[in-house]
Write a structure and sequence with these properties.
By secondary structure, the protein is mainly α. The chain is built from 21 helices and six strands.
Length: about 550
């Protein structure tokens, strides 16, 4: 049967199995930490995410051609709506924006009323309705009668709503399936003892979760071939059928999942706590009741929200509140994580080039018999190869050498790699514009330059995702209070909206002959923000290590 479990219970009721023991203080401080096995029930959720991402990337991966080009135009890339590059990029950015603002709704519903399992299941049905509308309005008679564009917009709205309810909950839910909280020593069959660590295990779970996302994203290869060689309606039908499998797989695991019950009005309590801290700190300054820490420094304004620090009212008692000191500390960690997330919109601006401008760029080069929108799948292919290498070799190798790359450093490296990817894309675009026969106005034709030179751009983006995107998911989960994990995850996902808004701002230069500017400015912004990010947050890794060493 499924298990409803509160996070505090998990911490208090941690357990040992056969051939396991608690580590000594010396072992915990000096032994190399290793990740545990991923629970089987977590793999059910990972398979569900694979199916959902198969559907998402299968339909969205061919949006650019579907919108940009005309239907059945001889000697041209496949298309349906004939809206041009501006409309294609604009609607693509809208879809990105919408898909990453709706997770806030899904998070609130899950954390306060339905719980993660029910929220994912209900929104999955909504998602399926959007898929069906998209498939039915992409049949030839609908395209010829002008039904493709309104059908696309309606399906984008419905699919975006569905994916929002899923995305904010599925990644916290997969991590919740691992119930061990304390480091422990396990004796292997070889007789060797190893130190198993929760943080390393959560990092590994998110690595495999992201790996499944990218395996699913290869569906764009199949849908691109279908749109190129058959038509758009079978290209959309395939991911629609896969989503039926997604719902069935997730439902089959209903009696195995660990489920965190909803906590009611936690979001309201959080806002009240923030307001109380602000109000009490101002009151303390006016009355001279400023609180000092152990080093004689003034504490931050959030400390005044703690019941133990609340000022006594005129009736001789502190005002009763619905939180304790620990909740305030957790909320402070949440706000600290959210400050880290503020730098991600520029990263998503660079990442989103994969599904729009890099697709158009490939269409301006000679790709032989390979459809231009298949090129974007080089990114997930790199990730499928390199995520296991990082999880099983690179990160464990660093830990054995006594080197642990903290989340902030990993994100910084990812940002730099994204800037390099955009700089390389700008160089490629310059080469396209200086090559005949069409130079900087290729239109729907291509210049005499091989699309293979795009490959390094996708490689750099893929490596950036391993460092930045996966770490962002991990950071959102591990730094969130136990009863606000979906909400904090939705805040991280919301940064994608910032990337989409930036994409709208770039729309005037997202067409020939200004695509060099597009990629160059994106690279400069990302590089500048990367170093600003590191300057602002490089101390966080040290603070996190000190907190972990202190047992927090």
């Amino acid at each position: 049967k499924s298990v409803d479990i509160a996070y505090e219970d998990m911490l208090e009721d941690d357990f040992l199995k056969e051939n396991e023991r608690w580590p000594t203080a010396d072992e915990e401080a000096t032994w190399v930490r290793q990740s545990d096995h991923v629970p089987r029930r977590a793999f059910l959720i990972i398979v569900t995410e694979f199916c959902e991402r198969f559907t998402y990337y299968g339909v969205s991966g061919i949006f650019q051609n579907y919108i940009q080009n005309g239907y059945k135009v001889p000697n041209s890339n496949p298309g349906a709506i004939n809206g041009g590059k501006h409309m294609a990029t604009g609607l693509g950015n809208f879809f990105q924006f919408w898909c990453y603002i709706t997770p806030i709704l899904g998070a609130v519903i899950a954390d306060q009323w339905w719980g993660k399992y029910k929220t994912i299941l209900v929104f999955a049905v909504v998602y399926l309705v959007g898929d069906l509308i998209l498939t039915l309005t992409s049949i030839p008679s609908s395209i010829r009668s002008g039904g493709a564009l309104p059908g696309l917009v309606i399906s984008m709205i419905i699919i975006g709503l569905g994916t929002g309810g899923i995305k904010s909950n599925v990644s916290p839910m997969v991590a919740e399936q691992y119930q061990r909280s304390r480091p422990f020593v396990r004796k292997l069959k070889s007789g060797k003892e190893v130190l198993i660590d929760r943080e390393a295990t959560i990092q590994s779970i998110f690595n495999w979760f992201y790996w499944a996302i990218n395996v699913g994203s290869l569906s764009a290869i199949a849908t691109s071939e279908l749109e190129h060689n058959v038509d758009f309606w079978p290209a959309y039908l395939l991911p629609t059928l896969m989503f039926v499998i997604c719902i069935v797989v997730f439902w089959l695991g209903r009696n195995q999942y660990v489920r965190t019950p909803p906590t009611g009005s936690i979001l309201v309590v959080a806002f009240k706590c923030l307001f109380t801290g602000f109000k009490q700190s101002r009151k303390a300054k006016k009355t001279g009741h400023v609180i000092m820490d152990d080093q004689g420094k003034k504490v931050g304004w959030m400390e005044y929200a703690k019941p133990s620090n609340m000022m006594i009212e005129e009736n001789g008692a502190a005002s009763p509140v619905a939180w304790n000191d620990e909740f305030v500390d957790e909320l402070k960690r949440t706000l600290r994580a959210c400050k880290v997330f503020l730098f991600f919109p520029v990263y998503w601006l660079c990442y989103n080039q994969i599904t729009n401008n890099l697709v158009s760029q490939a269409g301006e080069m000679n790709s032989g018999s390979v459809p231009n929108d298949i090129m974007q799948n080089i990114d997930p292919l790199f990730l499928i190869v390199f995520i296991p290498l990082f999880d099983k070799l690179f990160y464990p190798g660093l830990r054995r050498c006594g080197l642990v790359i903290g989340p902030v450093m990993r994100i910084f490296i990812g940002f730099i790699l994204a800037a390099v990817a955009m700089a390389y894309a700008a160089i490629v675009q310059h080469l396209i514009y200086t090559t005949g026969p069409h130079y900087d106005h290729p239109g729907s034709d291509h210049n005499d330059i091989s699309a293979a030179i795009q490959i390094p751009a996708y490689a750099f983006i893929a490596w950036s995702e391993i460092f930045a995107s996966i770490t962002g998911l991990e950071y959102a989960y591990t730094r969130a209070p136990h009863n606000m994990k979906s909400i904090v995850m939705s805040i991280f996902l919301f940064t994608n909206c910032g990337g989409a808004i930036l994409g709208f701002a770039f729309n005037p230069i997202s067409a020939d002959p200004r695509l060099v500017e597009n990629f160059a400015i994106a690279s400069g912004l990302m590089g500048g923000f990367a170093f600003l990010f590191f300057f602002c947050f490089f101390k966080y890794d040290r603070k996190d290590r000190e907190a972990n060493d202190g047992g927090h």
